[in-house]
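Example 635.
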Amino acid sequence: MGYYTPPVYNTSGMKSDLAQESENFLRHAVASAMSGYEPRDSQTRMLEACAEILDSGGILMAEAGTGTGKTFAYLIPIILSGKKALISTRTINLQEQLASKDLAFLASLKKFSYVIAKGRGHYICLRRLYAFQPADTEETAEHKRVVEWADETDNGDIEEFSLHKKPLIWDRVCSDADACRGKKCGYLRGCSYFAARRKWEAADILVTNHALLAVNAMLDDDKKLLPPSEALVIDEAHSLDSVVSDQIGIDLSEGGMERIFNKLLKVDQRGVYKGHLSKSPELFSDVEELKVKAGLFWTRVRASVENRRVIKGGFALKEELSGLADSIASLLEKIRTSALNLFTEDEELDLKAELLRLRALREEIGIFPEEQAGYVRWAEIEGNRTALRMSPIYPSGFIRENLLPHYASAVLTSATLSVSGDFSLMEDILGITGAARLALPSPFDIKKQVRVEIRKGIDLQQDNGPARLAEVILKEASRKKGGTLALFTSRAVMSRTWQLCSEGLKTAGLNPMTQGEMSNRKMLEIMRAGTDSVIFGLDSFWEGVDVKGDALNCLIITKLPFEVPTEPLVVARTEEIRKKGGNPFRDYSLPRAILKFKQGFGRLIRSKDDTGRVIVCDERILTKNYGRQFLAGIE
Ligand code: SF4
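Predicted structure in complex with iron/sulfur cluster:
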């Protein structure tokens, strides 16, 4: 049973022409061209709702369970409407998949144009490439390979580079807004980035990602990168919140600072000065002093600031930060008066781009020390990373005021936007008001296809918790009925459990893999190729895993995925709810965990023929009152 609130403007209850036309297209053109196509009521309903929103304007929140065919449900009305549309999805992989599969198929049935839009740093800059001065033999070889590729490529997109891995010199030869000569550039006619921008302008459908969508929304109207569109679709809309927050927040990291300083000046292994300021010896001591000061600052952060604890009021190391900002300001002034004009035009352009980054760094340093309403600050001191972070508590204001108003119609869709048809959590987080809503369950027969089993007596807070969990994983995977995915919520528990059972899994003839030992993509490729894989995965495996058949038929949910209550963003959000008189558990933690549980659960059944078992190793699903809401969320 789905939940559909018809848009208020469609009072007649009649299907619009566009809805009818889209349905006909789906039932005839698509059905006859696609082998094995089966009509799905949920897909038709979503298609109609998308057509209504395109016709009348407004926002549609459309939750569509696995197997609905939501991509065709929004693409077909867009294509038939003839409106220019922007489709945003979470990752570049998903962009490529949408273009190469769904859009390519639909374009074989109906004429329209589409193209992928990526951030500027994905495209080659010929000016920087030909001005590049390799510093050693490795750079010379890399440069040669990139030049050869640049001569042949049609689109200059690094993803096409034959080595499938970004060359080491890429950030010094890719397109960069701050180092671009624009209309004065001698390479403008062959410039990949501007050629791509022209294609973006001309295309009927532009496929972008959430990060570029957020960056675009931050720019003034005359500086927008993406062309205006009448319609916007945000696919994987459940992830928009975190991507937008990352873009509009601050991430001041030790590594990031070092990278900026090293681009200005760095001593290589042979003691030779390299970098943009290597021709200005009078500035060497200033840069070196700045590096020392920054190093001391980060040492003090590690010594005196607690990892992932909310920073309230004025920042304790405010004086040190302001000393750093002063040193950067003084270096900027010295460079302005003494170092510019010493270089070739190309060198100077790159130096100016670095100076802009240095200026932006100084600005962020200036913002961080004081508390800002609606933002939360914390430090991250983990492994090799030390950073100061500032993030909006909710990106709702930004999305409502800067992002959505540019589009007459917007569809936000995902498999997880509601808790049993209630969209209020996601609407609050994303700043959505007055939207039409549609919640469509998966058309698969989940009750028949999945057996849910609950294992009791595993408490991961207790010392023996990982050992009991390891026993369950070993026993279930050893049944050898297909691949197993164990989803964890804590790295420490995952590592401990891995230590306890990975050898046993190998001895049982299985192929265990744990997140981090190779790329997620590689692990999933291996899983798809056989039926003996056992993957131990954290956050990124709770979503986006699409493995059909016996390659994955056992999903182990090690713990109900409540967010860690001490995480800064969670602390700030729960405080805000409490201030407004709400109940943080009921209004935030529980629905958030249910959405994530649904995401994880959705990894198992990817087609109507898939079957499998979900083993939940958290008895709270039975013993707590709220437990049944998790089960209701997946029925
Ligand atoms: S126009 Fe800008 S991005 Fe293009 S080649 Fe010239 S400098 Fe590079």
